[in-house]
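Quick entry between incubations.
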Amino acid sequence: MDYAFKQIEKKWQDKWYSEETFKTKDDKTLPKFYALVEFPYPSAHGLHVGHPRSYTALDILARKRRLEGYNVLYPIGWDAFGLPTENFAIKNKIHPRIVTADNVANFKRQLQSIGFSFDWSREINTTDENYYKWTQWIFLQLFKKGLAYKQEMPINWCTSCKVGLANEEVVNGVCERCGSEVVQRNKSQWMLRITEYAQRLIDDLDDLDYIEKVKIQQKNWIGRSEGAEVDFKIAGTDDAITVYTTRPDTLFGATYMVLSPEHPFVEKYKDKIKNYDEAAEYRAQAARKSEFERTEMAKDKTGVMLDGLCAVNPVNGKEIPVWISDYVLMSYGTGAIMAVPAHDDRDWEFAKKFNMPIIEVVAGGENVQEAAFTDTATGKMVNSGFLDGLEVKEAISAMIEYLEKNKIGTKKVNYKLRDWVFSRQRYWGEPIPLVWCDHCGWVPVDESELPLTLPETDNFEPGENGESPLAKMTDWVNTTCPKCGAAAKRETDTMPQWAGSSWYYLRYIDPNNSDAIASEENINYWMPVDWYNGGMEHTTLHLLYSRFWHKVLYDIGVVNTPEPYARRTSHGMILGENNEKMSKSRGNVVNPDDMVETFGADTFRTYEMFIGAFDQSTPWSINGVRGCYRFIERVWNMQEMLTDEEGYSKDFESLMHKTIKKVTEDIERMKFNTAIAALMALTNDFYKKGSITRGELRTFLILLNPTAPHMTEEMWERAGFGGCLNETEWPKYDEAKTIDDEVEIVVQINGKVKDRITIAASLSKDEMEKAVIENDKIKALIDGKAVVKVICVPGKLVNIVVK
RNA sequence: GUCGCUGUGGUGGAACUGGCAGACACAACAGACUUAAAAUCUGUCGGAUGAAUAAUCCGUACCGGUUCGAUUCCGGUCAGCGGCACCA
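Done. Structure below.
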């Protein structure tokens, strides 16, 4: 009997969507479960097979938790502002709103064809006015709290197109569209002060149930370090170059200084610097490189010594030369470093190349350069005046004390984390609701005026001189100051795509509220998100940004929890059959539509979960899909083996309880592949037995239902178990029935397996040892040897150590 | 370069907290059914020696360490993947 998945899957999907089967309940007395997946960016390519990996996983958890009596919120929406849609719109002369609507319709059809149990009544879209009204509102709160400010920041500038480019549009240093040179050019941009929250973003990780690698990655990204800021006087001036160092103990080993080529002193001391032209030329060269290229270790060190500028080492009064080099960035620390070539790899390379003196200050043996800067550095100080003989750790404290006493430096905590560049010179984003008034400065649009809607236009091309396309729309730009009424101009930059995705989990809990982000009542009930699954690639940007916004909302009393997500897990990437990333150019893209069409949604879902370890990346295999299809058909055909017996047959009782336990626990641990393997093994056992009782089938169908919901509902109905499967209860297991009376244990001699014996599971260690020693085979093997030790692990093994 | 992760049969993977390496699949091969093929069902399936479903040895990227015992813990090396702040 063939399984007619097309008709059956359609039948149940029609029922679910028309009856809103999975709509979240209003009942706030029930225990809640808020499951969240990263909402997709609706691209023109349609759904990728990677999306359903995350969505199926949490769909399984959501469906299981519903059967366990939870009130489940499992929502979905569209993260729809962004660059690809805008570029598509420009290229094809279609308004991005229309492009977005088309893509959303396609994504929605695709997601619904897979049978996810999303609550579609809560669908949100970041480009809806009623959504971005609140994105703008949150921005205004940030602005009012002093967390938004303007600063000159470099943008990628295409010298031919005369537009600003996203990093992704710069390929090998040239413009992706025209191939012309791209340079860094400064532009005044809106910034968000995420660094003010750096310490809390680290500290609060401790109480969260995030997978460890996410915590580590976030901590390293924020990059807290302790050290000192030290002032090096510029000889013959009142100015000092301030550097940040984590190793103030090595100050006596500083033999030169390096400024970032953009450091303001280069301009300020233009007249003093004899080779200024050379320096300016070097700076222009550096502007052509990305930060990534500049800091790459593999490349050859370059730099220019500023002739005429000298710094004074504050601890020994020695004059040392000042260089500029592109490996020093303005964006970290103070934009200047003291170079201690004996104890830093990059400084050492630089010093070798330019013949700068190298002074060893920590006794480190022959390979001085190997004694790199680390937190765990140890050793005795040498060539270091009053520090000589001290251990590194003592020397650090002693030096900080000295610096502070003599007012030449201070202890300082530094973070690698940088403030968030929040401006985009683009059309398809939320307008920033601020007005520039010559009298009042930056004035927020009145909150009652929100949303500040994106003005209509047919021309989304970037503006002149790197301005946003909105700058061309003077009717919209020219306005009056909300404060004093004078003529004023609107901000024309828009927000980055990250804005809408930084708070979307809050909108799902009350998506139509017109008075607030969400009602207090709903926030109190639903927050925090219980389980958030998403890709590792979002760990340091999206996940950190949304934690930051949530904390700001917490500080102003909008939300009730200091963190948005109680738990964070991550899925691995699905690669093409050839083990490479799926991409059109590689021709290895798998279309979910084809899979659903050929094999059905249940097979597709099962394969997505069976493909491999959930948190690891793994290649697609069409043969693997066929294997899952075979499994689905074998399950379907079990109907022919169905008996009239109600409970479990005697031989299967223990196995049924073990399988319930295994599947229940594996789903919670996201071990979906082994949960399915257990159900496959059970299916094989039913085939061997040649029959299945009604009780066995009933339990089996519930266990498989979260993974293959359509077929299991149909089989439930045909078996006449009553009602719908999705309204029944998750089966319970009896722990006692999962434990065997007898176990096979391994007998090892000196760690090598020699025999297997079956003994009662209840035996104590002594009894086990006795049973093994008295075994004839073992007796023969240890005959004539001295037994040194016997290790007994109940239920597992006995290891006899002999000499 | 840097931060993080990963490395197990022909392939995807399993092995819970250090205790039988290879569950469950895929592929391959063989058998049953069939006029035949497909589908389905059943069986074999890490390597070496071996007639063997006997026995022994080797085997979880590589080198070393800890341990009665290491795929698992520690140190080092190599390779691959993800992030690197304006793709999402």
